[in-house]
Amino acid sequence: MPDLPYPAGKSSPESNADWRPLLFSCWTEQRDERVTDVLRSVQIEWTVRQVNAAYLSDRIMDVFLKTSGLHRALVSRIARLRFWLAWQLDTRGTNVFSDVVLDWLDNLQEWRGWSDTGGRSSRVLLDQLDSLVIAVSGSFESGQPELVESYCQQWLDDREKGEHQVSRLRERLLETERGASRQRLADQVSRALIGRALTGRELPVVISRFIIEDWYKVLKQSVWSEGTDSELYRHANKLLEWLVWLGDPALSDRDRNRLYHVGEQIGGRIQDVWTRALGQGLPENALADIQTVIVARIRGEVPELKPALGSGTSLTWDSRWLSLASVDPQQAEGFIGRWFVEGEGAAEQRRYLFALLEDSGEVLWTNGAGVKLGLQDWALFLADLEADTLRPLPAPTPFGEVLSETVNLLFKVCEKQQKQREEAAREARARAEALRKEKEAAERARKAEEEAKQAALEQQRAEVERQRQEDEKAEHERLQKERELAAAKQVDSIGLGGWIVLAAQKDDEEPTRLKLAVKISASRKFVFVDRLGLNRREFLHDELVSGVVSGRIRILGSAAEFDDTLSRVVGRIRVGRN
User: Fold this and answer.
1) What domain range is 541 assigned to?
2) What is the pTM of this model?
3) I need a surface site. Which of 169, 193, 436, 519 has the fewest CB within 10 A?
């Protein structure tokens, strides 16, 4: 493996260093270091087997502890077992991973939910790991692995015994909490119904007291026994509303006929619902005071009223229980039986979602061993997940799987290195063959080089000639452009009456002189005539420019200059005649 302290060459067995004292001191001091780093820190030549054992123990423990999901406090302690594993890998090879040791390492997953709370349950595991320190130290001192294997076997035996106890504890906890959840639902719904009905009402004291002390029991039992969707619950809630309606003159005085009808029937209905809910008859004289109030109300009398929820009432309620939404069991199924973590680093706390209490819509948290940690509303649980303050632990990776993957990876590395060595041998043979053929190819290479030089010279000459032609072409185009610009400037300067000369098309013909008669700007057309105003010729601007550049057309000048010249000539002729 690259970057490891392998020896420079083969060493004799007599000179091999004994590294057990070094590893034993690291374990005794409980150092958090990798074995390969420890080997580098001392000036000792280690064997290839020792270096490989150190690397393998580091690799296995690093991958396992990174994917185990255990608490950081546990990871740091178990990771130190790498010193013992390195020693045993060097001494015994793969026999170090006996079935007992592998089972013990795999069963560490049962402590994924362990948190360093400082309580008795968390202290039990730390005490067990303190015993591991003693067992491993004894193994180092005696040179035998049996003490560690005995420790692992004892751990597994204790775990098997504890599983039955934990299983019974979980069953009892679930049964107890489901009953308490239903009781909590019944209690909170009954309180919320009474609180909603009595809030802001002034009623006779006997009715308020009967509702809070007696009818509360009926409401609670109806919810507990048959649920909030039952007929019994609806009847009990309806009678609660009728009792409030009868006792509040502000409500019942508006309909005297209905007051008489309700007052006549409510006693019998209360007795019926009471019997159905509680399984026993209404106590004698329980409604006597209420019947007196009802009779007074029917007569039109107004009894003494007091606030239904006065200062002496200790009733508390939460109206959210009346609109409690049921939890979809399929949605909750993906969370039940999983570990969740809250907090970061050493301060993280882990909780096991043991069950969903459907009656009250609450999550039951435990420590994984059947000990209740608390309850949480399902909506708050989802909110914590959304806010990432509560995170599910990823699925654990068993130690055996980590070991298998690590060995397979190292086997692939070994195969790769073997192929590299074979490839290096083939390359060496190829180089020898290349050296043998090098002399034969030397002459061919020299000739080829000469030919290449000659070809390069020819290519340079051709390139120079091509460049010369391109330069001449560019110069010609530049001059042509300048001539066209000058010609265009001359053409644009011709005014009305300006003269041009057209070159003769044949040798025996005279050049033709024409004068600009019309200049059409829109179409850039020029109309020329001869001296007599005849022989009309038309040219476009571009035709004139092309003719000037080619020499077929010559511009004599503006009309004023030509007229002045003509006048001077005519004047001289006249003077000569005189």
Assistant:
1) 494-556
2) 0.53
3) 436
